[in-house]
């Protein structure tokens, strides 16, 4: 029989790389706010996970997961203590369909849980944490990595669906615009010695309103958010390799290399010199 017709199999939702895979006990730990340029799938094995994402507080119960989109600032909610044990896989995907996962707490069925168990089993065997990032294990053969890619894509596809994204309320939209202006102002003035009064005045807010805005969208104080932005910018500059650490420290608003190094290590787990050596 001569088959002249073909049905193309086009990729709907693809995963390009895995950035991290680990299991973490969050009980008694403060979840420091962060943002990164990849997706992060957080599955709650037991207990409850409380998080702020894009100004909204989420409770992720056991057996459920949430996905943090790239460059979305997320943190502990600062009010309720986490009791969760979570498994996390971070990955890169250029698929626009991934946007449907944003702001959703999803509880997979039995098949979904089996798929996710396969994802983490493969991820934990193929990926290990290295200082400054992750690296492949000796078990990470091309076949194993392909199986990991297929398992993760299958799980995401199973839970992907178009959602009716309702526009935010007028107040919510206004608050988001205010926070956007705050973020833009801080990013444009990272090298300066900023005070709460100066930031509030620039954003046309009172000190009280400024702190409430930052707490709402970040779950942290204004200065803590500013430090996070400074560390993010420092990482970018280190990766570019155009400036030395002293120049970078000055460019992102630290008075001394010592203070910069100490803060960087507290946030990232390693000093900037080691981070630069591993880039």
Level-2 CATH architecture of the largest domain: Sandwich
Percent of residues in helices comes to 40-55%
CATH fold name of the largest domain: Jelly Rolls
Which regions contain 5 or more consecutive residues with pLDDT less than 50?
Answer: none
Main sheet characteristics:
5 strands, antiparallel
User: How much strand content do the residues show?
Assistant: 15-25%
Order of helices and strands: EEEEEEEEHEEHHHHHHHH
C-alpha-based Rg, rounded: 21 Å
Distance between the termini: 56 Å
The averaged pLDDT comes out at 86
The helix tally amounts to: 9
**Main sheet strand line-up:** 1-7-2-5-8
The CATH superfamily name of the largest domain is Regulatory protein AraC
Structural class: alpha+beta
Shape: globular
Please give the number of β-strands.
Answer: 10
CATH class of the largest domain: Mainly Beta
Tally of discrete structural domains: 2
């Amino acid at each position: 029989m001569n088959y002249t017709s073909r049905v193309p199999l086009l990729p709907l939702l693809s995963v390009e790389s895995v950035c991290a895979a680990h299991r973490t006990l969050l009980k008694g730990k403060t979840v420091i706010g962060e943002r990164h340029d990849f997706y992060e799938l957080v599955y709650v094995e037991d207990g409850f996970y409380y998080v702020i994402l894009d100004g909204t507080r989420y409770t992720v119960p056991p057996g459920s997961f949430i996905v943090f989109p790239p460059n979305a600032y997320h943190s502990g909610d600062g009010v309720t203590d986490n009791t969760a044990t979570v498994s996390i896989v971070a990955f890169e995907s250029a698929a626009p369909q991934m946007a449907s996962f944003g702001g959703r707490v999803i509880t997979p069925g039995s098949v979904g849980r089996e798929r996710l168990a396969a994802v983490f089993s493969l991820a934990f065997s193929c990926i290990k944490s290295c200082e400054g990032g992750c690296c492949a294990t000796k078990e990470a053969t091309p076949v194993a990595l392909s199986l990991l890619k297929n398992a993760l894509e299958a799980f995401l596809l199973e839970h992907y669906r178009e959602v009716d994204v309702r526009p935010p309320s007028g107040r919510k939209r206004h608050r988001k615009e205010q926070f956007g202006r705050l973020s833009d102002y801080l990013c444009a003035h990272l090298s300066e010695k900023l005070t709460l009064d100066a930031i509030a005045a620039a954003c046309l807010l009172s000190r009280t309103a400024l702190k409430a805005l930052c707490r709402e969208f970040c779950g942290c104080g204004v200065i803590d958010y500013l430090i996070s932005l400074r560390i993010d910018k420092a990482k970018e500059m280190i990766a570019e390799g155009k400036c030395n650490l002293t120049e970078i420290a000055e460019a992102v608003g630290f008075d001394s290399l010592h203070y910069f190094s100490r803060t960087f290590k507290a946030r990232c787990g390693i000093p900037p010199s080691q981070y630069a050596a591993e880039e």
